[in-house]
Write a structure and sequence with these properties.
The complex is a heterotrimer of chains A (about 260), B (about 325) and C (about 260). Chain A has about 260 residues and is an all-alpha fold. Chain A contains nine helices and no strands. In chain A, helix 3 runs parallel beside helix 6, helix 4 packs parallel to helix 8 and helix 8 packs antiparallel against helix 9. Chain B is of the alpha/beta class. Chain B contains nine helices and seven strands. In chain B, strand 5 and strand 6 form a beta hairpin. In chain B, helix 2 runs antiparallel to helix 8. The radius of gyration of chain B is 32 Å and the shape is elongated. About 0% of the residues of chain B have low confidence. Classes of the chains: A mainly alpha (about 260), B alpha/beta (about 325), C alpha/beta (about 260). Chains A and B meet through helix 2, helix 6 and helix 8 of A and helix 1 of B.
């Protein structure tokens, strides 16, 4: 009985999220556009996340290189280290790790911000004062998250590759020129483009879940906390599910 | 308001940096795939493309000059490979160049190698069809190898009997017991040295073969899929082993012989003298060693052919290490 | 008595013309909890009406239905001749510019300064106003509530009474014709509460607005009300001015005036 009701709740929530997404799309197309607020959110969501994302990206590139080195040496293909790390970074680790960090930072902050605005009736106040709070708060944030995550992932990839370069040079001597050639000789369009496209969906998922959770927050401090928390949890799960879908679709389309 | 402007500038830099990196990646990949810049098409026809795929590299003198664009099946025996070649190679590749399919590294991607022919010819133009070279057939190679091994085994067997007969012959010992002349001994020693040098060169040849095989790569797929081949391979290895066993015995006996001679010489008895007088015998020994070398040369050629075959690597390494060990033993014995 | 009352009513009707807001047969329930059942109310121009009721009697639900934050189950809410439940979002936004709403929790945007808080509704509605006009309107509204010096402060730096007045200024900046007050004195000390009530009365006189005040604070009821509606069990249980209701002998009405 309990399982059935929790299943019901989960399905109910999935339905609500879909409806919320539909509402986002319809508001997104219709004027008026909150351009200034959109850019402000881009700054907050994108630019302000760069140090965190850059740091994790750098460490990821460095650590991955150092961790892979022993096995690569065993197989006698140490020279392929830049190639294998760059492919792993650009295809999978860059987008997913960055999206997860992004979910942790942006998903929770959107969830908490909109949640507390809901709880203190600021959202109602906007609505009453003739502002469409959905457009002003939700559409700008979701769209900003959708646009900013790909940029963040690109920069994170670049920084991670630099980390990889340093990692290769800890116990070896590879000139930057050689590293560069090795990386780009082994990358193909089908490594970069699907990874780039899926980051839009990751960003959208983080934005829409954060906004949904915050916008429908329950009253009280606990409600806000729960919104922030479940925004991160749900968007992280969705990122993985989307990643699975993405790899299957690219596989079906023959990009491998 | 000023702060807002500053923020917008930061945001702009941020977004631009991301986009520039994306474009850079795409551009670099595109450049590697010859998508930008002008290029021309060359064609080549093969019987068997051995798993070559669109996108594989095309090399001229070991340098990447283009990629495989498409592979078309023309009919039941001919496959056409269409290659995109960068304009830089346009002034190098000639009409009579030969294309072959090879493997990049041990288990790497397939590549098309274009090699120049020795004869002069006009430069290749867009759409030209190059000549193709049939890739090496490992099956053929192994069949020859097997036959050569048999020959080597036969020779070694004969040599062994000869030596043992030599060893057991009382007549010979009688001859050896004859009184000796010292300068004849010296002459014989010179002959023996010649023979040893020959033996040495044989060993060197063998060593060269071993190192060639060690450095070579090859077509793993072809070997693994053919069971008949595996059987042949097994046989060949067994035979090689037998040969080396025999060689062991042979060298042991040779060594005994030499020790015998030495002791005779030391004791001042006349055996060596007699032997050394008999230059006909030495010549015979030389001849038989020549024969061995001929056999080994044949073996060498086959081994050369096999040098791409990595499966033999382990075996030859074993042989090599055994040899080293023996060498060590000899040194310590001395 | 009855005749006197009806005459009083008649005078009202004649003086004020058609009501600016009329609510007929309003029903609203949350699942099994029937909050409003057949509620009727009329608000005239320039009138301060207090809706009096216990906590949980549905006062807040009533004004949220009026402003369109909640959708009524049944019945009509006519504001300036438009039925609120029938309107789409755009029409609703348009009618909302004529209705001010003062939240119980003030609902100031805590990430913005006082100035931005006040500019926010302006920016929404009249895109084409110049910066000078906006500044003038902000200054004007702040002067009305006597807090011009707080213009560049953040809401969290202000006291409860000041926040309430800023919220009132934000409500006033659109020059609404109807102001809905949701428990304006709750959470304030009696002195500050009285200041707010005085301000409300002043504003009504100055701009000739109609107000609907939700309250259970008798000070507020006595000082601000032209007319009082007692909301009980989901209906308009009693109505009249302060004196009439103090003299009402019904125990359910009397409990408020003791």
């Amino acid at each position: 009985m309990k399982q059935i009701s929790s299943l019901n709740a989960a399905l109910n929530e999935a339905g609500d999220i879909s409806r919320f997404t539909g509402r986002f799309l319809s508001h997104w197309f219709k004027p008026r556009y909150e351009v200034a607020e959109f850019f402000r959110q881009c700054f907050i969501i994108g630019y302000k996340s760069l140090p965190l994302v850059g740091l994790t990206g750098f460490i990821m590139g460095l650590v991955l290189t150092m961790q892979l080195r022993p096995s690569m040496v065993d197989y006698g293909v140490e020279s392929q280290l830049p190639a294998i790390v760059s492919i792993a970074l650009i295809r999978e680790i860059g987008p997913v790790i960055t999206a997860l960090i992004f979910a942790g930072k942006i998903g929770s902050s959107i969830g908490a911000e909109l949640g507390s605005m809901r709880v203190t009736e600021q959202i109602d106040a906007m609505e009453v004062s003739g502002t469409n709070p959905f457009k002003y708060l939700v559409v700008t944030r979701v769209f900003a998250a959708t646009c900013m995550l790909p940029v963040l992932v690109m920069l994170s990839d670049a920084i991670a590759l630099y980390g990889c370069y340093l990692g290769v040079n800890i116990r070896g001597d590879t000139s930057f020129n050689l590293f560069w050639t090795q990386v780009f000789d082994n990358l193909a369009f089908y490594d970069v483009l699907p990874a780039f496209v899926k980051t839009f969906f990751f960003g959208f998922a983080v934005g829409i879940i954060g906004c949904y959770k915050g916008y429908n927050s329950r009253k009280g401090t606990e409600g806000v906390g729960r919104s922030a928390n479940s925004a991160v949890v749900v968007s992280s799960i969705i990122i993985f599910v989307l990643d699975l879908l993405a790899v299957q679709i690219t596989d079906l389309l023959g990009f491998y | 308001m000023i702060k807002q402007n500053a923020n917008n500038i930061k945001l702009g830099i941020f977004v631009l940096a991301g986009l520039i990196f994306l474009i850079l990646i795409l551009y670099m990949i595109g450049r590697n795939r010859n998508l930008f810049g002008s290029n021309f098409i060359l064609k080549v026809e093969f019987e068997n493309v051995q798993g070559l795929k669109a996108g594989n590299n095309v090399r001229y003198a070991g340098i990447d000059v283009g990629t495989v664009k498409r592979i078309n099946l023309i009919n039941d025996t001919v496959t056409e490979v269409i290659m995109t070649i960068g304009d830089k190679a346009k002034t190098i590749i000639r009409k009579n160049a030969i294309a072959s399919i090879a493997t990049d590294g041990l288990v790497g991607n397939k590549v098309v190698n274009i090699t120049s022919a020795k004869q002069a010819s006009a430069l290749a133009e867009d759409g030209d069809v190059l000549r193709s070279k049939k890739p090496l057939d490992t099956d053929d190679m192994l069949r020859t190898l097997s036959r050569t091994n048999n020959d080597v085994a036969f020779i070694a067997e004969n040599l062994k009997t000869t030596v043992s007969r030599l060893n057991n012959s009382t007549a010979l010992w009688n001859i050896l017991n004859d009184k000796a002349l010292p300068h004849n001994l010296q002459l014989s020693a010179y002959h023996i040295r010649l023979a040893t040098a020959k033996a040495n060169s044989i060993v060197n040849d063998l060593y060269a073969i071993v190192s060639n095989v060690k450095n070579g790569g090859g077509s793993l797929g072809a070997i693994l899929t053919d069971t008949a081949f595996a059987y042949n391979l097994n046989m060949a290895v067994t035979k090689i082993e037998t040969v080396s066993d025999h060689a062991d015995t042979l060298s042991l006996q040779l060594s005994h012989l030499v020790t015998g001679i030495q002791s005779d010489v030391n004791h001042g008895s006349g055996i060596v003298n007699a032997l050394l007088k008999d230059s006909g015998m030495v010549i015979k020994l030389n001849e038989s060693l020549d024969n061995v070398q001929k056999g080994t040369d044949g073996f060498n050629q086959n081994m050369e052919a096999l040098k791409h075959n990595f499966l033999f690597r382990g075996y030859f390494r074993k042989i090599e290490s055994k040899k080293k060990q023996e060498g060590k033993q000899v040194t310590t014995a001395r | 008595m009855a005749t006197a009352e009806s005459i009083l009513f008649k005078e009202h009707t004649e003086n004020q013309g058609a009501p600016v807001m009329s609510i007929c047969h309003l029903y609203k329930s949350f699942e099994d909890n029937h909050v409003l059942t057949d509620f009727n109310l009329e608000l005239f121009k320039g009138e301060n009406m207090v809706v009096l009721g216990k906590s949980g009697s549905g006062k807040s639900v009533l004004i949220k239905c009026i402003i369109g934050l909640l959708r009524a189950d049944e019945g009509t809410i006519k504001v300036f001749g438009e039925n609120i439940p029938d309107l789409n979002d755009e029409e609703l936004d348009k009618i909302r510019t004529k209705i001010g709403f003062l939240f119980q929790s003030n609902a100031l945007y805590d990430s913005m300064t006082v100035r931005q808080n006040l500019e926010f509704p302006l920016r929404r509605h009249w895109i084409k106003v110049s910066q000078q006009e906006v500044d003038a309107m902000v200054t004007n509204a702040l002067n009305d509530v006597g807090l011009i010096h707080t213009i560049d402060m953040m809401p969290e730096e202000l006291s409860g009474g000041m926040r309430k007045r800023i919220a009132l200024a934000r409500t006033l900046i659109l020059k609404p014709e109807i102001i809905l007050y949701d428990e304006p004195t709750t959470g304030l000390d009696p002195v500050t509460g009285r200041e707010i009530i005085r301000l409300m009365v002043e504003i009504k006189k100055k701009y000739n607005t109609s107000s609907l005040i939700i309250s259970h604070d008798m000070n507020c009821v006595r000082m601000a009300s032209d007319r009082i509606v007692v909301l009980l069990d989901g209906i308009c249980y009693a109505n009249g001015n302060y004196e009439e209701l103090t003299n009402n002998q019904d125990p359910k009405v009397k409990q408020f005036f003791e």
